[in-house]
What does this fold into?
Amino acid sequence: MTKSQYKTLLSKITIGPLELQNRIIFGSHPTNFARKNMLTDQHVAYYRERAKGGAGMIVLEEQLVHPSDLPYEKAPFGYLDDIIPGYRRVAEEVHKYGTVVVAQLNHSGMQSEGSTAMRELWAPSAVPDVVSREVPKAMEECDIKEVIAGFAKAAGHAVAGGLDGIEINAAQFSLIRQFMSPLTNHRADSYGGDLTNRLRFCVEVLDAVRDVLGKGKLLGIRLCGDEFAPWGGLTPQDAVTIARELEKLRLLDYITVSVGSLFSLHLSMATYYSEPGPAVPVASQVKKAVNVPVFAEGRIHRPEYASKIVEEGLVDGVYMNRALICDPELPVKLRRGEEGRIRECLSCNQGCQVRRSMGRPLSCILNPLAGVEAKEENRGVNRCASPKEILVVGGGPGGMEAARVAAMRGHRVSLWESGTDLGGAMAANDSITEVSRVLEAWKAELAVYGVRVVAGKQGKPDDILSEKPDAVILATGSKTILPAIPVKGCSVLSALEVVKGPVDREKTILFWDEIGDQLMARAVEKLILAGSKLYFVTPDFFAGSKLAPTMELTSWNQRLMSGLNEIFTCSRVTEVDGNKAFIENKFSGKTLTLSSIDLFVFNCWPKPNEDLYWSLKDRVKEVYRVGDCLAPRGIGPAVREGYTVGRSI
It folds into this structure.
């Protein structure tokens, strides 16, 4: 798309008493940046970078409104007066760039964590949470009044802190949604039963908050458009009705629509398994039903898609949360006509989903600065005083990032890649649109900064030494290691070989998986698409253990179980002999034999490809390792180390 094709997305929009400089919004999400449940320097730097990058509005991480709620250890306490100075600092920095900033207020209800707060959960009814299986206390009317007062008090703190308004969460992880939904509201009093009663709590919260805000501040609401539980949950038709009823109150300035609920957390933080914009269809229905601006949230990462749905009038604006975590400058780059340089989100959830991650701070596998913007060393890449000749060996994510950053500093950089194109192991997944686009953006950056790329070039010690580089950065990846399983008379492939190469159709395949990672997932999907039958064996308690925290587990298992495939958990392959395989349960010791095996595919822990490092260590003044050749850990550490080394030379 050309710069002009983003005209509507980048145009101003009036919501309530304020005007946004564009229709791109950085929405609320947990960060784990808080200290003693207060906003920190890292919050200030994090939001400042997104404002500097051109976001039209920023919605702060959810601010808790009552002590009965502690969904994650480092959630900010919006109900305490001590939060006000933090608001002031954030507002001051964000307003420098013309960006509107509001606080999201929330109570998580039954989706909170009783084990974190060491007390009972509060909810409309005593319905156990699907994830934690904890049964909450059904709130008494005095509890309800207390929480409503908490919303009002927290709103007052936001006003005192100079924020532009409030967004009320009535969607995923929300007590308000739990009151709205028949799934979780089984009450027989004035807060339960028909829709009017189930909306009462929400209406009373909005009334109380608007009284505090007055007319000069924004008040918005984040609604659930679909709980994906048609047997008893909120449906798109309900969402439209609710939006109409709430608009009649004349309290709201905007409505944001997302989707997902208790039974569909994976759709609230949708991965590449979901089509872009899962909330857009219902958001467009809500937009037709109301007169206030309506925004959509959820897997809106591609600028051209965001532009299309705004241009077509489906929504008035878009929340691009993960997209702006990955590249804070996305709006500015669109305005400058630099779409090809945007580093787009992979929808991988590998660093940014930290709600239940034991306090781990938010990060991004593609943006090494996400979550550490406040550190002094991350405030800009400075030009070097004395340019050096730098040779980077290996064109995967770590090598490309090291080359990019070193060239930004003014060094003369060459990048050797043994394959025919850049990308390393990541390129094996370039059939996934997001991966392909990220690799193209990286290549564009290398071209902008004048990196000399040589494809098909092996990094041999003598060749490297003949170049007389001042510094060598090794990004040579990892080695595939064969499993310690006797295999004879059967074809064998690694998961990486499956992903990279052609696959014979309609085979019976034994898949041995020690890791449960994304490489395994992509290999399995490719085999299933080829019409193969899979026997999947893992020593873990379930297949795809690393896919659970990234919200891919449900969708991947749906694909795995779509055919005549069988899973053997807590088991190991003891031997493959011809077309027979012998499986043993590691707890019971019971064995079984699988027959008609055509191919044995394995996914085992790799080893660092470090031979070149030891060959050069004492022969070149500066030798650095980044990524898997230092220790196999995946894309995120490789990118971070590439950035750090490139910046340090």
The first strand starts at residue 13 and ends at 15.
